[in-house]
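hiii, so i know i said id send this last week but things got crazy w the move. better late than never?? heres the sequnce for the chain we talked about at the cafe, plus the structure i predicted for it. fair warning i was half asleep when i ran it
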Amino acid sequence: MSAATSERTLKRRIAALLCAAAACVAAFAAPSDSDLDALRKTANLAGQRAHARAVVAQLGDFTAWEDDDALFGATTPETPSAHQRADAPLITLTYFNAPAAAHLRDAKLASRARLDALVTQGAPDATYASFRSIPDFPRTAVIVKSAWWPIARDGGTTLPVWDAESNPIRRGGNDYTSWTRRVRIASGDVSRAPLTTKDFIRRRVDATLASALMRDPSRRKAAVIALGRPLAAGDTLVMVAAHIATKEIRDWVWITLWWHDRPEPNPAAPATLTAPYLRYRLEVAFDPATPAAADGGPHVAYNPWLEARFPDGGAGGGTRSNCLACHQRASYPSPGFLPVTRGAADLRRDPAFRPGQLRTNFLWSIALRAR
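okay and structure toks below
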């Protein structure tokens, strides 16, 4: 299957936006997975990227979906989210489209009591048959984990930019405080400014959102790092990174985006994308191991905002990670998402696969946030 044929075929298989009540939410079709499985089995990265662009192009306003705070309850200092624990925290929110949110609620997957029961009563996992699993998410499920940088309402704010060639790999990780370049983002529509908030997926901050986010100490710290003060009404949140997971195939399709001020080198005709998504660089993972990376090892698909910070635990740090290789470890009780692993799951030595672990359908949010 050529990349062009893949793109034409797979575009037809993505559903248009569906509007329910007063809000529009995206739900993707649930077709046969034969075409996508072929892209995985043949390690057709060009076809995978074409499909990823088509998904992003029809994503719509995912910030209108229910977020993880609504579904699991707000994080507390005792239960921070995975990307709020470092010295350089991020403002992150994970959004679930209507089918994903409904499944999580109907199956009571935000409840530890329910997960405890499934440890012995769950059905066999579709990928790892010797383990029990939570009920599988529907094929129409879409989940977006997003990371945001605050821009001050009164002028603008500097933003770190990831340039891999200028940031040598550090054994302790490359969080955004170590990045060598920054750009200034002007607030609002400033005609003379080279970069403004309109160059991003963005959210206007009102008093309610500011208050909700600033109750969390890690998000508050992230705002102070960026602004020198807490988030306030009138500021803008700009999306700097996102992981998008679609349950179109058994192990999900994993797409990751991050903002950059320079066009992506040699893009593959992203005709389906429009501004501001053209500002975001893209990687995709259909498999934890293939196609081979430049160093000959398992496939690398990482997001500098979300994974570059991870230290080298023996198999390479966050800049040598793979979305699916990480999420295949998601299980309850949570074994922790570190160290970074590459390639197929290590069923004998990885604590994520010790006897009695409940598979959480590749979702860390359930393993980490259930109460």
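btw Residues 131 and 154 are 54 Å apart (CA to CA). thought thatd interest u
miss u guys!!
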